[in-house]
Amino acid sequence: MTRNDPSTTQDAWLTDFTDQILNGKTDSLPADGTDPETRALADTLLRLKRAFPEQELDPASVKRMQARVMERWREEQEKSPRWREIFRLDWLTPSRRQQFGMAFAVLAIASLVIITAPLLFSNSGTLPASAGSETNSTFLWIVLGVAAISIAWLFRRKS
Amino acid sequence: MIPRSVVSDEHLIQRFKQGDLDSFSPLYERHVHAVHNRVRYVVPEADVEDVTQEVFIAVLKSLHTFRGESQFSTWLRTLTNYKVAEYYRKRNRKQDPREAPIAEAELLPDGSNDLQLEERIALRRALSSMPEKYREVILLRFSDGMQFDEIAKNMGSNLESTKSLFRRAVAALRKNLENQP
Prior knowledge:
The complex is a heterodimer of chains A (about 160) and B (about 180). Chain A has about 160 residues and is mainly α. Chain A has six helices and no strands. Chain A has helices at about 5-20, 35-50, 60-80, 80-90, 95-120, 130-155. By secondary structure, chain B is mainly alpha-helical. Chain B has helices spanning about 10-15, 25-40, 50-60, 70-95, 100-105, 115-130, 130-140, 150-155, 160-180. The interface of A and B includes residues 8, 18, 44 and 90 of A.
């Protein structure tokens, strides 16, 4: 698509017209200057502008709404169970929360390794009927991998 | 002491996270008009204030998750869109969605000839049933007052593509208006 492309020209005409109506430079369709289809779209834009004129909230409404927001928030805070607050870690600063998360993840992985180590590193291959143990070992490695990925995902950075 | 008007959103959020609840007030005062304006384009008149309040309650609840990787206003717009979608989900559960516009029309005073209000109802319905990408580009220009180059930057696109998207969005809006009973 180039600047001489008719559709690009029409796009530009329509956006210029939008700027004009929003800046209050015009409030009606120009007599000519573009094709009927683009004029029809310009008419839709005029309808939108007229239906939603600029409207500022009055200071009293702003204050009243703010009071209701704070009241509702406090009510919800009081209703919220204490254990949920603890698990949301709101009592920690964001940097501490991240450190806490990392420490928890390390502890969880370490616990999992300690619990499953005897099964993972058992010398099962020397026994004649060891096929089942090998399957168990592979399965446990998979479980460990999935657990590690899950923990990393749970404590990933969120914007 | 730094005047409130020059304190950045990020600084206010940081203070809020550290337990200074008063820092929410300037943040609210700074953004309530933008949220209210966006909501009134897509939510019936009678529910605009309620949805705006829901947005700010959600802000209070989730401000601790805001890490400043995007601008606060961008984050707030996403939250507003989420709350508007939630409003329609709840509303559609309560009533037949096909009857919803009628319910809104019933709020008009008896014998009202308020064409602007009727036009707003029609436009809200048309905007609400548009694909999100189209609705967003119209709202960014009309309700948020962004210039097209800012919209392009915000959407991670170039100016020509944004203008083309805007034109397609307006065409979709017109089609939706024409298809209304």
